[in-house]
Amino acid sequence: MKDDDLKIQHRRRFLANAGATIAAGAVVPLVSKAAEVKAPRLARSKNTDFDVVVIGGGFAGLTSARDCAKRGLKTLLLEARTRIGGRTFVTHYQDHQVELGGTWIHWAQPYVWTEINRYGLTLAETPGASPNSFSWRTGNQTKNADGEKAFAMLTEAMNKYCDVDGQLGRTVYPRAPEPLFNIDGVRKYDAMTLTDRLKQINLRQDLSDLLAPQYTINVHRDPSTGSFAEQLHWWARGDFDISLLFDRCGHYKIAQGTSGLAQAIRNDGDFELKTGSPVKAVTQKGDLVTVSTDQASYTAAAVICAVPVNTLKNIRFEPGLNAAKQTASKVGVAGTGNKCYIHIKQKIGVWMGTAPHPYPITLAFTEQERDDGTLIVCFDAAGKLDVNDQAGVQAALRGLIPDAEVVSVISYPWTADPYSQGTWAFYHPGQLSGSWMGLRQQEGNIFFASSDSAELWRGFIDGAIESGVRTATEVFNSLSKKA
């Protein structure tokens, strides 16, 4: 499938990735003509086109390219798509900006918060992350409660689920930014699935069904495929508190959009950018690395590979990558569900709804209260929600909102996109303790940066920036030693 063939899924029409408009609105441009190519500089490294070639224009790649260029390295960034931003993508639904991919940030995420301050960006809020009313499916019925009561129940259930040590899991991750600090504890729970852990605790059915969507949305797939150690790491990121975790994962977003941050990083980096340039092969011979696309080949002293783990297998590396990278890319990391926005006629206020796997809607909450109804952001971890079938979406939503009348649905097929092949990273059992370090490992003059292998906020924009900052420093130090 070619990138241009991938379309944003909308009720009546499709939107090509780059620049076309729909009745609901227009895609926010992510690369200006002025920013497309920067003035070339002579490579410091001998007999190479560039000091550094970066593969992938998501936040990991953008950050590493910017930081390499700021250190005086002649840098080229190759992006397969016709836009930058990776697994983030901004568009508009009528008068409202929507994020079809990665969205939420928080000041407890240090790397992205540094960039927000650096570029003078501001915050907006998603109201449904702190709901006044709450609905959830349990058995064949829907229960309703006010938001405060529902979160009190959810706190009770999640605390019991994560309390493996009498300290809410703190001994497993005493240092959340160092995920393998207690390697023995991590290995113990990395062998366990999310559903394995649920079977160990005694919860009444309505509490179990209230709890299950919370870890299911994290894995964004069948929870029997997700590592319980990974869930405990998410839990540690929220300081072992479900309300704090919600606040950090789904409440605050960038008012200028993720595209605003992506463009700010790009404009601040004196590097050359080529979009529409999927990389086919990376070859190392001695101190020289050659990166090949269909159009051209480029030589460099170092390469930063900043593509999602799931897509590594689509690039031919010579010599081949280590076993951890090959296996992880073949198996993939877990996130393969859907995210969509649903406009309904009803005004439902500030609401949240959940349902356990395999219900086609795992989590939904108010994105915007409108004069003509409500815009809801919705996640389907089961991959069963056909966003092109408005009647099917309406039927699924009516399990949580009985009188819901769907006006429109907008989404993007991240799993079908060959340059993402999924959503955010959540590890399968054994991957954190067995593959994580290998995913980060330098191989000759090839370095690796990705949100999928970040230390703290793995699977988030913050994790992508963290990995880009780290990898750019590693590259600069490596090349400086050879100078």
UniProtKB/TrEMBL annotation:
Cofactors (names): FAD
Binding site for FAD: E79, A80, V279
Record keyword Transmembrane helix present: no
Keyword presence, Oxidoreductase: yes
Listed GO MF terms: oxidoreductase activity
Record keywords: Oxidoreductase
Domain Amine oxidase: residue ranges: 59-475
Family to which this protein belongs: Belongs to the flavin monoamine oxidase family.
Record-given protein name: NAD(P)/FAD-dependent oxidoreductase
